């Protein structure tokens, strides 16, 4: 019996003695595509914030050394997972968009809250603070900004990602792994630098 159907392609339970190579290859391609999407939107998020800081003539502090902000990549993955879940429910398109928007607003707001709490816990510094804006819920969540994240999520998921997905599928696997390792090393260097400066009683960053 088929357990998964996508674009008229059926995948069956792999035989333990004769593994379904095509099945595993498809899963591998899917995971690498999502990893490429994570890296792409992490870099795109950094680029957007950097460009915004130049336009506003405001110096933007960054936590990592490289040109990426993983919170944007994680945000995309959560939104994409939400979209795929709703598609399985066979909802009307309008209803799917409404639910995807509402869930995206909640999920991305939660990402900002958790991300802000973690960065402050580990680095004793706020890299964004909405306290002075109207309708703010603490320093890390603002109603207007959260609603804006919801619209941006729909644009990226429904319009941008389908256009760039074929490009992600063509990126060499080795290149993806190298960039991901550099991202992990960047995190390790960042934590090590912070701990060293904290030990020396200096002000990190």
What labels describe this entry?
205 residues, mainly alpha, two-stranded antiparallel ribbon, 4 strands, globular
How would you characterize this protein structure?
With 205 residues, the chain is mainly α. The protein has one domain. It has five helices and four strands; from the N terminus they run ββαααββαα. The chain has helices at 21-55, 70-88, 93-123, 143-168, 173-199; strands at 2-6, 9-12, 136-137, 141-142. The strands form two sheets. The chain has a two-stranded antiparallel ribbon with strand order 1-2. Strands 3-4 form a two-stranded antiparallel sheet. β3 and β4 form a beta hairpin. The chain is globular and about 50 Å long.
Summarize the entry for a quick read.
By secondary structure, the chain is mainly alpha-helical. It has helices spanning 21-55, 70-88, 93-123, 143-168, 173-199, and strands at 2-6, 9-12, 136-137, 141-142. It is globular.
Structural class: mainly alpha
The total count of strands amounts to 4
- Helical segment tally? 5
What is the averaged pLDDT score? 84
Terminal-residue CA separation? 57 Å
Low-confidence runs = 1-17
What's the order of the H and E elements? EEHHHEEHH
The helix content is 55-70%
